[in-house]
Amino acid sequence: MENEKPNLPVFLQQFLAISPGGVSHTVPLMACMAGVLATCAWMLGGVSMAISAAIAVALMLAVAPMISPDVLMKLLRARPLDIAAYPAIYEMAAMLAHRAGLDYLPKLFLLPGKGVNAITTGTAGDTTIAISSDALHGLSPRQMRAVLAHEIAHAWHGDTRILLMTDVLYRATWTIALFGLMVFIFGSFNPPAWMIIVFGTIPTISFLLQRAVIRDREFAADHGASDLLNGPEDMIDALLHIDKINRKRLGLIPYRSTQPPSLLDTHPSVKVRIEALRGINPGTWQKFFETRRPPGTT
């Protein structure tokens, strides 16, 4: 059973990327996250604290990309995908990367574990795509190509950098809110009750906004995959087949026991993603990438 949508107005469901809206809300969502952080810092220490928080976030964003994707691959126990054993996968990735106008080929890794899964990490020339064994052996060539198109769309959109920024904003907000609560509880300052409630709920608000950004980027990557594949049919077929494999391999049981509510999930439900793909207007495929190719590419 799919995630049930919360009883929210349609425009809010679309803004929070619970339902497809046809428009990306990443920028306003991230602006809301930055606003929550700035408000939290200002309430705790005024303008000077807000400026300090901004400097800390800038430093974290500068340092974080220095961490190599290879480190994450080791943590996930992933290994490089053997090009001799899977030449077709490399050919698909090269074709899709060229079609997206990328000037590099993402490194491909093999993920251990059950279920169909794929992740993209790194930035620019250091981009790495990891694909699970069940994806390699359980999907047809067209379905595998759709999965790769989705991940390469993430790389083209710069989603790893976007998600890094949201993670830093969330962690900074959580840290300041926790520090504020400690000051309120153990310090000599006697704040009003409403301020304690605000500092207690602000991290949750930031967390929900971060989840919304992730879901928004999933919608965008699905649309990008449709652009690359000249239509959404292969992506829809892949999503349906992946859902079937994962329910069987992971032994998923009904929603209320296993799946988080839509507001907390990192991915829109399969039903909603297919709804969004079917809502793409015919004739608009490839336009996203054709209008965003770097100068000099063909």
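the 2nd protein, sequnce then structure:
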Amino acid sequence: MSQLDDILEEYEFLDADERYRLLIDLGRKLEPMPEALKTDATLVRGCSASVWVYPVAGNGDALHFLADSNAAITKGIVALVLAAVQDQPAQDVAQTDIAALLAPFDLKNQLSSNRTQGVPNMIALVREHAARIAG
């Protein structure tokens, strides 16, 4: 079972307020992203909050991402996206349908459109990084 599956299992049993708390908690658990990496080059466009995503070399051919947001719920959504692809081979990440993996969370109906509008851009950026690294 993947980390995302574990999160979904818990998420499905929660009411709306508890789901917000779960997302906030996921965001708090993200690996810290150094301030020096929070630049215009790592900024995800189209998000209502500031979101930064930066790929780093992982173990072997695995791709590891550092990410952050200045909004707690958005940071939790970032954590969900990363849970779908973190520490997987770049080639796999480039081909992963992240949106389909996140579909069971029904974020569009659970959260305001402001909080989810940048998700497709974040997914695209993660996949572009992976495709570039996979060569």
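The chain has a mean pLDDT of 90. The chain has one domain: 3-134.
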